[in-house]
Amino acid sequence: MTATHHPHRLARLTGTAYLGIIVTGLFAEFFVRMGLVAPGDAATTAAQIAAAPDLFRAGLMSDVFMIGLDVAVAIGLYALLRDISRPWALLATAFRLIQAAILGANLMNMASALQFATSPGGAHDAFVLHAMSLHRTTYDLGLVFFGLSCLALGPLLRRSRLVPPVAAWGLAVAGAIYLVGSTLVVLAPGWAASFDPMYAVTLVAELSVAGWLTVRGAARAARAPSSSAPAPAWVTA
Known about the structure:
Blueprint: H1 7-36, H2 42-51, H3 53-81, H4 86-117, H5 125-160, H6 165-187, H7 189-195, H8 199-222, H9 233-236
Helix pairs in contact: 1-3, 1-8, 2-4, 2-5, 3-4, 4-5, 5-6, 6-7, 6-8
């Protein structure tokens, strides 16, 4: 029996995995990288990573789990939404998997920073900061594809009735914020910090979708349109 015969169970599993992404991502970013990396200060960054290598490794492994859960969520959402519009569900999945691939490759920058900071011959401060700066830029490049995925998922989720319309459109808005924020980091880094408060909107939007799928996805999924439902207007327009 396929997963689509039990959409309530799949919705709950996907929502739970999504919550896992949020928890592991917040831990790695706010409790590890923001606590240990001092932007523009190579000596302090290298010293702090060298003084807390286990915490830094925990952040690295947290990212590994986050990426694995991201792949699981991409597949789960595709299975839940493919009957709404298979091409757009595939597109959203492809963008999310591209993001996962970029973030996976980006882990090498964190591993390099740790190796430089804890090398027996002494910390190579400039290399440590360079590796973490490259990690930040590459991470934001990955979020460009995540933003595109969210933009595609918003209307799909609205049509599916798996989450309330406000949560579905909130995810689309989050996608636009990710796109703007990541573009600023790459093209206008001086403006990026002033845009950071907007990411609070993305957190609320993603928590809403993940939480609703986990807690209420069963009831919504049971009433979701079948494969005979017409393609949404935003696809055929």
